[in-house]
Amino acid sequence: MHKDEAKGAAKDIKGSLKEAAGKATGDDRLAAEGAADRVEGKVQKGVGALKDAARDVLKH
C-alpha cells in the first residue's frame, strides 16, 4: 500500500464523519466540507493505487 492510499483513506473517513455531523446538526457548510474531503480522499487513494501499479510494472 502506498502512503497516498493510506492518507486518502484517512481523508475519506474524516470527510464521512464531517459530512454526517453536518447533516445531523443541519450545518450545510460542514456537510459540504465533509463531502469535499471524501472526494479528495478518494482521488488520493486512486493516485496511490496508480503509483503502486506503476511500480509493480516497472519491477517486472
Topology readout:
Blueprint lengths: L2 H23 L2 H32 L1
Structure, explained:
This protein has 60 residues and is mainly α. Helices cover 92% and strands 0% of the residues. The protein has two helices and no strands. The chain has helices at residues 3-25, 28-59. Helix 1 (3-25) packs antiparallel against helix 2.
The gist of it:
This protein has 60 residues and is mainly α.
- H/E topology pattern: HH
- Helical percentage: over 70%
Shape: rod-shaped
The class by helix and strand makeup works out as: mainly alpha
Record field, number of beta strands: 0
Mean pLDDT: 94
| Proportion of residues in extended strands | under 5%
Question: Uncertain regions: pLDDT < 50 for 5+ in a row?
Answer: none
Q: Quaternary state, please?
A: single chain
Query: Biggest sheet, open or closed, and with what strands and sense?
Result: none
Figure out the total of helices. 2
What gyration radius follows from the Cα positions, in whole Å?
A: 15 Å
Distance, first to last CA: 18 Å
